Known about the structure:
- The chain has 2 helices and 4 strands; from the N terminus they run βαββαβ.
- The protein has helices spanning 18-22, 55-59; strands spanning 4-8, 28-29, 43-44, 65-69.
- The strands form 2 sheets. It has a two-stranded antiparallel sheet. Strands 2-3 form a two-stranded antiparallel ribbon.
- The N and C termini lie close together (10 Å).
- Bound molecules: iron/sulfur cluster (2 copies).
- One iron/sulfur cluster binds next to α1.
- The site of one iron/sulfur cluster has 15 residues, from β1 and α2.
Amino acid sequence: xxxxxxxxxxxxxxxxxxxxxxxxxxxxxxxxxxxxxxxxxxxxxxxxxxxxxxxxxxxxxxxxxxxxxx
Length: 70
Ligand code: SF4
Ligand code: SF4
């Protein structure tokens, strides 16, 4: 059971991939989908290893990631 989970707002994502670099657990992945602004939004990958560290959310310049603990 994961300690935490993240929710990514795909419409806010600008595909900078800073969150992918920030997550030490490699839980965020690139996608081939398009959002309405023409970017490929990232997604939360499979796995239940999210620690809720918030590094991804703090790193995101678009504030597109929310972290939920517990
Ligand atoms: S909260 Fe931490 S562990 Fe969870 S996806 Fe974000 S960077 Fe990775
Ligand atoms: S840091 Fe934010 S804007 Fe950049 S890829 Fe991740 S979710 Fe998208």
